[in-house]
Specification:
The chain has about 350 residues and is an alpha/beta fold. It contains 15 helices and 8 strands. The protein is about 45% helix and about 10% strand. Helix 9 packs parallel to helix 14.
């Protein structure tokens, strides 16, 4: 992992101190790529990972007045202007992050994984814009400024576009969002913004960091495998809670039930069970082709911007969920209670 090189970072002493003795890994999602599963796995195994020199900060640490507060404007006046000037907010965040990174480094940790998918953006923003993380560049630029060179690796998970959008819409509709119109689905299909553009935004924001891209289809049910890749195989990944897949999108019967419960017409959804197939065959084919083009670009080296991680060495558990694997929870409140219990 190559240390970040910045021109005259204000807190270079603290950031560089952390970088020399500890690798800071920023996991930014994306949403709907089993990020919650990975975070719950790390939290459940936190003591054992700490014994191997791996620290973890997740959403319970980063959000709601936590580590990353103030990086994005959260309070505005009547005219929509930030109450606290951006330079002042970022200065406070930078001091806080550098001090806490230094504290962890002094405790002897070799790796610190910071995982928060909202760094990249939100599902709601994507659905509103009918585009894949359209504000990623601006958001990530602010986070890069706040981390001030401390991040040595950024990890992004991507998912086939037809599956990503189907999961995103199912998640949103299950929580009260309206159904998409045919015209909106057409706009998603012809959009020129794919994962390649998102990756370029990430690389531009963190030019000195190593960018590792994980394929959701390989790593979703294997948080242990994802962890090994993040730390370049430096530890033995624990197997506790390594086969629990959390926060999955509701299927068609669940969506129909939720629509009916809030007074909607469940007949507006397709009949049958299983996952909601949002796109028709032609639309799905076009989205799959776009995704294949992105994967080919990554496999060819992505212009030196990123490394695609698709496979891992097989272990006794195999590459997929075993027959006894469990799926737990689909709602945020269930997820948050579970995470709170584990730390």
């Amino acid at each position: 992992m190559t240390p970040a090189v910045l021109s005259q970072p204000r807190y270079a002493v603290l950031a560089d101190m952390g970088r020399r003795i500890m690798d800071v890994i920023l996991h930014i999602g994306a949403q709907r790529t089993a990020t919650t599963t990975f975070q719950a796995y790390l939290r459940a195994n936190a003591p054992g990972l700490a014994a191997q020199g791996v620290g973890f900060w997740g959403p319970l640490r980063t959000r709601h007045g936590g580590l990353l507060s103030g990086i994005l404007p959260d309070q505005t006046d009547d005219r929509g202007n930030p109450v606290i000037p951006e330079a002042q907010r970022l200065d406070r965040a930078r001091r806080r992050i550098c001090a806490q990174v230094e504290t962890v480094a002094r405790r002897g940790f070799s790796h610190l994984i910071i995982s928060d998918e909202n760094i990249l953006g939100t599902v709601r923003q994507n659905l509103r814009a009918l585009a894949l993380y359209p504000q990623a560049g601006e958001r990530l630029g602010r986070f890069a400024t706040a981390f001030d060179g401390a991040v040595g690796r950024v990890v992004l998970s991507l998912r086939a576009l037809d599956d990503y959008w189907a999961s995103a819409w199912a998640f949103a509709v299950g929580r009260g969002h309206r159904l998409p119109s045919p015209g909106e689905l057409d706009r998603l299909v012809v959009s020129r913004r794919s994962w390649q553009q998102v990756i370029k935004d990430v690389a531009a924001a963190f030019p000195g960091a190593d960018l590792q891209v994980h394929a959701h289809e390989i790593h979703a049910s294997r948080p242990d495998q994802r962890l090994r890749q993040m730390v370049d195989g430096a530890i033995t990944a624990p197997m506790k809670d390594a086969r629990h897949w959390l926060h999955r999108a509701p299927d068609l019967p669940q969506l129909r039930a939720r629509l009916a419960a809030r007074g909607g017409d469940p007949e507006t959804l397709p009949a049958g069970g299983g996952r909601w197939q949002l796109f028709n065959s032609d639309q799905a084919t076009r989205l799959r082709q776009t995704h294949e083009d992105d994967l080919l670009w990554l496999a060819a080296g992505a212009g030196g911007l990123a490394t695609l991680i698709e496979e891992d060495q097989p272990d006794q558990a195999g590459d997929n969920l075993p027959g006894g694997a469990t799926t737990r929870g689909q709602e945020d409140d269930q997820q948050d209670r579970r995470l709170a219990r584990t730390g």
